[in-house]
Amino acid sequence: MSHEIRTPINAILGMNEMILRECDDPTILSYARDIESAGRSLVSLINDILDFSKIEAGSIDISNAAYSVSGLISDVCNMLRVRYASSSIGFIVKVDPTLPKRVIGDEMRIRQVMINLLNNAFKYTNDGSVTLSVKRDDNAKGFILVIEVTDTGIGIKEEDMDKLFGTFVRLELERNKSIEGSGLGLAITKNLVERMGGEVSVKSTYGKGSTFKIAIPQKVVDNDFIGEFSEDKKDEFPALKQKRDSFVAKDASILVVDDTPINLKVISRLLRHTQINVDTCKSGKEAIELSAGKKYDIIFLDYRMPEMDGVETLKEIKKDTQGINHDTPVIVLTANALSGARERFLADGFDDYLSKPVEAAFLEEMILEYLPAEKVDAADADAGVQGASSGYDFHEIRRAGVDTKAGKDNCGSEEDYIEALRDYASSGLKDVYALREYLDNGDFENFTIRVHSIKSISRMIGAYDIGNVAERLENAGEERDEEYILDRIPAFLVDLVSLSEAIVKMAGLPEKSAEEIIDENEGKNELPDMSVLDEAFAAIREFADNADQDNVAFVLDTLSDYRLPPDILKNVENIRKFAEDFKWEEVSNELDRIHKDIIV
Questions:
Q1: What confidence category does residue 199 fall into, taking pLDDT thresholds of 50, 70 and 90?
Q2: Interior angle at CA 504, CA 502 and CA 509, nearest 5
């Protein structure tokens, strides 16, 4: 029943989210926010009922595994800060620096009870603050994780304390009638904590506030202290989610490794106003070479890459105990951040993970957490404010299912989003032919890597439907499920081509200017001889006559390594565009122009 109820509610919330993202009418937006609030409350109620039903049936299992204590606290704090960003209630976090780095327990359930208690605290507090304290208590039984949530809210009457953890109990209904809830949250919390061998207690003064305390035994696996919790550093920059620069770090250097050029471009652009020195590369081999010669403050490393994946690259970087980046934090970039991902990545040796598509706010928060404090300065409050919309018409790609607001948020600005769309359209047809070739050759490994990349960049531009299908194809590729792939791939390729064409045809989508092309030409290798151009263009003509798109692209890619005469840069760019669109007559005409006007 819970599934049957949640499915239509999720559909309602999803469509309502589209209204919130795309509508400018303040009255309709007000209605949509009310729908969102009511819908979220209903989902929360259903989840509570489902959890309690499982508890009563004895079907909730406690799953113990190693986890990062600071990671748990960060996850909870990030979630609460986003949820209550518009609240006037202060949120204070106090963390004992002597907490162990890693312990064994059920991280998911501990996170659940922490969020339950914090949500309650915010709901019943009108003024003042909510404080989360996490500390340790060592006794004869070993290490005890102690979590306290203190609020300056309405408090609880002494005669009501015995009813507090009952099922479907809500106290002082008349006074609290405006506060939504099932009356199950504390009952669920108590049951879960006791199943983990812990205890729950509460102290309250009516009219002044309450303190809820949970104490849960955990087994220590890494006795090193977590040290000063980075949440304190984040508090210096509370406006991370605003569209302005929150900090600058001119002396900081990071390395970003990803086999998808668009991802490299987006991360670099998202950070450009922070003035961080960003190096990028497209393979594990390049990353090893760069990290051997330059000290970085943070390395962002893609988990899935061809030839050498993220784990192999990490091991190579870290194996030299005297290496300059042996102790550098390495954060994995992944489009597969599922439940338990943090533990898996930590076990692989990474310090943390960042989900793709990368969002600006979370990227900045991650950097603030791991950058040395002395390299971080607050930005000028008046600097970096984003300009107004430049007026591009996104109607066509919205009709193709693209969430353009999410895409702009992922890319950091409309200008950068336009560039990402252009790159996406440019690679779309290449992806189609590459996937067909891999399947023809039975090359599931490269097929899987390619659809993984398509998944990532599709979600980055807001094309979530294509991204989700790519994810299912990726999973099928990993399992060598050829029947599933062959059944789904035709429609997927059609959608990919259709979206690429919609982007190309999008009203107002600019082509690269002559100035941009000339700028990109600077710094490349000199041509060894002008005869190289004659041979290259002759080869392109021959391949174009046979509609051989792959080999035309190969010759153009080879030419792109060299500094070409400025007079032919635009012609070469046109040839590439025409070839990608299979407009072979236009390719031939462009070659004729080069031969007539320039080479002869």
A1: very high
A2: 110
